[in-house]
Amino acid sequence: MVPTTSFAEKRRILQLETLHDLALALHAERTEEDLVEELLQRVCAVLDPAAAVAVTRGAGGDAAAVAVAGWRGQPPSGEALLAEPLWQELLAAGEARAGGPGVLAGRRYEALLAAPLVWRGSYLGYLALLDKEARGAASAAFPLEDRRFLESVTALAAVALDGARRLTALAGERERLAEENKALRGRLLDEVRGQRIVAHALPMRRVLDLVERVAPRGVNVLVRGESGSGKELVAKLLHVGSGRPGSLVALNCGALPESLLESELFGIEGGVATGVQARRGKLELAHGGTLFLDEIGDMGPALQVKLLRALQEREVQRVGGERPLPVDARVIAATHRDLDAMIAAGTFREDLYYRLKGVEIVLPPLRERREDIPYLVRQFTTAFCAREGIPAPVWRRDALALLLAHDFPGNVRELQNLVEGAITLAEREIDGELVRSLLGAGAATTSEALDLDGVTRRHIARVLRLTGGNRSEAARLLGLSRRTLLRKGF
User: Fold this and answer.
1) What CATH topology corresponds to 367-487?
2) 3-state DSSP call for residue 233?
3) What is the pLDDT of residues 8-23, one digit of tens each?
4) What is the DSSP letter of 96?
5) N or C: fewer beta carbons within 10 Å in the chain?
6) pLDDT digits over 300-328, tens only?
7) Which CATH number fits domain 213-364: 3.20.20.10, 3.40.50.300, 3.40.50.1100, 1.10.510.10?
């Protein structure tokens, strides 16, 4: 004889199956409105109320989502449901309650079963079921097992609701960060355009050609050059041209002691020391973007090992942390040091060197690109006067000749500082006497200074030698017409 299953047992099995299905359904990624609708439908399918409502309250206290089932006439609004005395009763009790008869949102009922949505002490909303439909052996009242089932359902739903809100907040934060990053990229692009690299000299043209080819690729780049030669500006150009959605994050490895540099680069967990709060490092902040490590040659051996591991594994572990965090950051490293000599001396790791040197860009010092000096002077003059809101002075020929003759050990940065200082001290024009006073003991005399025509002619002659005397090719490289070369006697 096949044993029969009682109605109560069937209902219990149905409730367990519904709880299982509901747990899976509620934890799928969805909006708060969809979640509340799904919740109410599944509860009604098991507990058979004549009518039911579900409402959630947002962070500001207003109704966030509402679902209604079996309601005769105009369904109530979320605001109306949160204004009901039932909501205050549930807040006071903190648990499910049954009752009746009574009125909810204008609808009379004989039996009521309601439960709050509570997660970690926060009341997120409630469910209310009115007048259980008589079916089979069930009575018109809600039995104890219905209350237990509803309590289980609302506990699951509260967790899912909190998760849905967190997902919504994260999506909003991602959108905000994307817009902020877009704005930052725009400002960076404007900054790069405002500081555009002057490249009339052939060595700098070659640098820019290489930057344009390398920028869209994901390869790491090592930028080498003397201090003040423009390594940071090259890093900005590489980032802007990369198309990577993340930010350009910069860290000067020579500006901090080793202990602070480690936490700045890799981040630190909270509680490592008294009063220390968790903080993301530059590698984490550069996720999806570019990390610019200036003066990489100043990094100590211990940190070199950690950086190499982070680049190899594409993950970072914070100081005091136990779990690695995935990181996708393109690294642009820069240095004025002779890394080859440091490798030979054992002070810089060769494996890290090759990890950083996917492509190497070597910036020429200003003394090897003197042809650019007049153009740089004009650019710095225009930018400084616009920033200060003053008229631009005239640079006299003897002043420019002295600049052309100077070696500028501080390179472009030294030239920029000198230009801004000269403008500050000058009235309507800048002459050789003023420039000589700013250059100090290293200044050439006027008779020793190279004149503009001389510099131009020497540069044209060098380019012609490089092209084997091909005037058309030389004119193309110089950005001049062939007729201009002929007019200058070449």
Assistant:
1) Helicase, Ruva Protein; domain 3 (1.10.8)
2) helix
3) 666 666 666 766 676 6
4) -
5) N
6) 999 999 999 999 999 999 988 888 889 99
7) 3.40.50.300
